[in-house]
Amino acid sequence: MRVLGIESSSLVASIAIWTDDSITAEYTFNFKKTHSQTLLPMLDEIIKMTEIPLDSIDAIAVSAGPGSFTGLRIGSATAKGLGLALKKPLIHIPTIEAMAYQCFSSSYILCPIMDARRNQVYTGIYQYNGEQFSTLMDQSAMDIAELMRVVNEFECEVMFLGDGVPVYKEMIEQLSNKPCHFAPSFMNRQRAGAVAALGAKYYKEGKIETATQHQPDYLRKSQAERELEEKTKEKETK
Amino acid sequence: MEEKDIYILAIESSCDETAAAVVKNGREVLSNVISSQIDLHTLYGGVVPEIASRKHIEKINQVIESALEEANMTLDKIDAIGVTYGPGLVGALLVGVAEAKAIAFASNKPLVGVHHIEGHVSANFIEHLDLKPPFMCLIVSGGHTHLVVVKDYGEFEIVGRTRDDAAGEAFDKVARAIGLGYPGGPKIDKASKEGNPNAIAFPKAKVDGSPFDFSFSGVKSAVLNYLNHGQMTGEEVNFNDVAASFQHAVVDVLVEKAVLAAKEYGCHQLALAGGVACNTTLREKMKEACEKHHISLYYPSPIYCTDNAAMIGCAAYYEYKKGVRHGWDLNAVPNLKLGER
Question: Where along chain B do the CATH 3.30.420.40 domains lie?
Fold first, then answer.
């Protein structure tokens, strides 16, 4: 079985090909450059190097959010276009879950955080029990202080990762009621390898969708929608 | 030997329409599918970029599949993928560009990026098989007001442009001010039919020293002042008269300059392009003026005036024939200039 992984939810642009329990190729950038200009050339490079026929891919796993709205759409449109042309299914991978998934067998509770600005983070809480991976809190957008109240409820120590760490590290250490851990460099950002590996697991569980069905999961409405809702609410209460 | 037929699958997502089309040999539209978001944006009084982008990603595959199906085509019969890469809303453009690149990459087809406005100009080729460059073209839309000499396919010389607002932008702003809402063009056109175009003398702006340049902020401000004055003095304002008089002022300038430019540059053919080319008064007045000056006038049907992918397929065909190919690093260029590559 072969799964293509696509990740472009944040600054990281990453492409991986997972084949029968190992990663054949992975290309990751954590560098300021438009994903629109990098993502497809990276896939092109991988295909040229490995000479893997594109149509040997069984499914396309895409990091489907949360994250940068534009970044998510570039990854999503790329996956949808590939799926349409190759007539292959897509696998919708929650971005935060894929980040936690790479910290295999960790004894800490796993809490990826992506900076969503204004003291907000995109986050979720996960746990490995040996090889068993489970979700303790589904991914959502929340205030960092609110997240720390939730995290403090757990007895187990917590490992944080993601681009929210450099932004909120001090606050996390201040608000935490137990020692905090921060994931090392090689597992603290999004990676398409993790997206593809989790994708293979989802695929085996039958969790696939068509390229037409797929769309990103922003976890947040657009600003215009939020403002319109507030206005309507104000009118109703008046 | 007869030349092989060329089929282009074209994708357009620069603003608030998600569109795909299949075009044969640049002039024959086999399908033209448009998913419009107008109703959604009407709630906000204009296009909201983030909402437009979200809608594009939701609809794009469905629209492309319908375009292939209606054309009775499969992807393997397509020769190239054409896509609008600018100008437009960056987030909206990116959806079409990323999708088109992925399809072209996975199906091993050449990718041809198209300038949105060149698409509008090319819309004229679809229904007028006799129209060939060179000709003068008046491009009027929500974002553009240009007079260009189309010297050859994909080759333009800009001879006039707006110094401030685009004509369509002025329509939108005036429509909002008299409470007609979004989209302004069609609504003003309709209201004008009930009003007197000579009721109010709004200024017809001239740009000193540039006979083919436009300026619409003056007439827009004059309308707003007129409305303010009416409100302050309590005098009743006839909105239909305002719409008709405003439209009259704008159309007069467009007709006068387009005809003058056609004559100056020795063009016996004049084409209209862009959303405002749907305006019925503009079409009528331009027809009258062109008949008087023995200029052949061309304009697309309304369906090809507003944003669509058939026009992108048409423009992509001529680019494709010239050997234009874009790489997998093609990016959206929100402020892409006309004639720029």
Answer: 7-121+305-322, 132-301
